[in-house]
Amino acid sequence: MADSATSENSTASKAVNFLRHIIEADLAAGTYASRHWCGMPGSGPQQQAGPADPARIRTRFPPEPNGYLHFGHAKSILLNFGLARDYGGVCHMRFDDTNPEKEDQEFVDAILDSVRWLGCSWTGLGQDHLYHASDYFDFMVQAAEALIEAGHAYVDSQNAEEMRASRGTLTEAGRNSPFRTRTIAENLDLFKRMQAGEFPDGAHILRAKIDMAAANINMRDPAIFRIRHATHHRTGDRFCVYPMYTYAHPVEDALENITHSICTLEFEDQRPFYDWVLERIADCGLLARPLPRQYEFSRLNLTYVVLSKRRLIQLVTEKHVDGWDDPRMPTLVGARRRGFTPEGFRMFAERIGISKSDSLIDMTVLEDCMRETLNADAPRRIAVLDPLRLVLDNVPADHEEWCEAPNHPQKPELGKRAIPFGRELWIEREDFTETPPKGYFRLFPGNLVRLRYGFVIKCIGCDKDDEGNIVAVHAELQPDSKSGTPGADNYKVKGNIHWVSARHACPAEVRLYDRLFAVPMPGARREGDAEGLERDFLDDLNPGSKQSITAQLETSLKEAAAEERFQFERHGYFVADRKDSRPGTPVFNRTVTLKDSWVTQDKGKGK
Ligand code: ATP
Ligand code: MG
């Protein structure tokens, strides 16, 4: 039961999940009530010197700054920040920058930007909780030395090959390293000299001394510190030993007073080592109890995309896409350029929920959340994507008048706007045919059609070029049929098409994005595949995922601000590209079609 003071502030609906049960039980039992907080991350003694921790729980989002965030991270971000918000806690934004290679400030900045964009804040209880694991290197070294002194760690000098060979298998116990019996003094001396830079990479490694016969392979003397002569993007050349992730992570959590350390299921087998590290260091007096606890949930898997950093990097470096923020990329920077909304991601996270069983979510679920949030808020505009000239033969060339179009059919409070009308208009090429199939109600010779928010017209024919291509359609205006006037009711027509005045229209680049991959599970084996056939996920790229066209837009779109979102009537949702669009020369990206064209096979031209 969330207490009333905090639950009132929460906006997301609170789908029950096992993590909420755990947190509620901990709050009811006062599991973490005795913790102290000195105002910053610190050792046990440092924390104990501070007042009671004002945060009822602490969670964290700990990305490695070695790439851009993807849709999977959004699930983890919204979960961790959401739980902290709902239960009177704080969520720490922590860069898990313990790996000197591959990390970069560029990634750090982009990650912070994306977390903010999702609407999450690491400011809580009057403090900023932005932390870097690299700030804890000194403590990690100190704690490792304490483990050595307590007989819980040793320096191994086997090479990588020997270590692998002696680790054993799932069915076979490992063998003790010949260096496992080194004395504490010897281990301390070697570890100090590792830190002093006396040895090359790989010469020695510091390992936990647990049990080489443990059933859980992760408990067979896992590595703690390795030698890496590398420059770190924050600590420079101060260190040439770096902690292993499985050692660093629990220590980071403990220094930050994290209560519930939530990670994805693949870390389940690491939990015993997580607890081992913290218990031993607490025994040495360096960490205060109660200690953080790790919980696992199932990661997000989504159809038609890949959510592995390695594959995303490959897409970018091999130029299958135009960078990390390509609107087709399942990254948050890509989603933003595509026009996806933070509200849509929040709705999605609520809908898919949190569980411990692996599942594959259909991309349609995410796209529907985007449609729903966009439908609610995006103003309506008119754009002709595949322009064909329509000439109203009975309208004078210099005639100009104005029609009124509502900005949002369900929200009259958003008002109406005036759209210019004249003799020559742009209409969609597919809204005219000489030979209508059954059920076609749009323009064909002799047929009456309503120009949406305008007049009824009667089609009288078309012009063709020498090759027989249709270059213009001719029609006659029915003067008494203007929408909103009494005469309009005299016409019962089935076809209703959109248009823009050719004289006033703004030609603009529109990018029609579609799914990046053509199959639900890129790279996965398919029915009928030969035994042993390895598929490359790149073979499943959708060749039609980006199309660039010149559309004719209604005048008011000309001044669209970057990132402004609209519904283009009958087409879908579009956003002014945040990089390339300028007021006066807008560039639009298609976010999603109005309906799911992958189910209906109707290529997105809503009728
Ligand atoms: P890699 O391990 O390849 O570096 P990663 O995607 O795990 O990539 P991290 O930066 O370690 O990247 O992830 C930060 C946090 O996001 C972790 O807590 C991780 O559990 C979580 N996370 C990553 N991918 C997903 C996913 N698909 N679904 C839910 N959470 C995820
Ligand atoms: Mg990771």
Could you give a quick summary of the protein structure above?
This protein is an alpha/beta fold and 607 residues long. Helix content is 25%, strand content 21%. The protein contains 15 helices and 27 strands.
CATH architecture of the largest domain: 3-Layer(aba) Sandwich
First-residue to last-residue Cα separation: 48 Å
Strand content: 15-25%
Give the low-pLDDT segments. 1-12, 600-607
**Global morphology:** elongated
Strand order of the largest sheet: 12-25-26-27-23-24-13
The CATH C-level name of the largest domain is Alpha Beta
Domains, number: 4
* Small-molecule binders: adenosine-5'-triphosphate, magnesium ion
- Number of helical regions: 15
Average pLDDT, rounded to a whole number, is 94
Radius of gyration: 31 Å
Brief descriptors of the model:
607 residues, alpha/beta, Rossmann fold, Glutamyl-tRNA Synthetase, domain 3, Ribosomal Protein L25, Chain P, seven-stranded mixed sheet, disordered N terminus, binds adenosine-5'-triphosphate, binds magnesium ion
Description:
It is a single chain. The protein folds into four domains: 179 residues, Rossmann fold (3-Layer(aba) Sandwich), CATH 3.40.50; 105 residues, Glutamyl-tRNA Synthetase, Domain 3 (Glutamyl-tRNA Synthetase, domain 3, Alpha-Beta Complex), CATH 3.90.800; 162 residues, Ribosomal Protein L25, Chain P; 115 residues, Ribosomal Protein L25, Chain P, CATH 2.40.240.10. The N terminus and C terminus are likely disordered. Helix content is 25%, strand content 21%. By secondary structure, the protein is of the alpha/beta class. Adenosine-5'-triphosphate (ATP) binds next to helix 4 and strand 10.
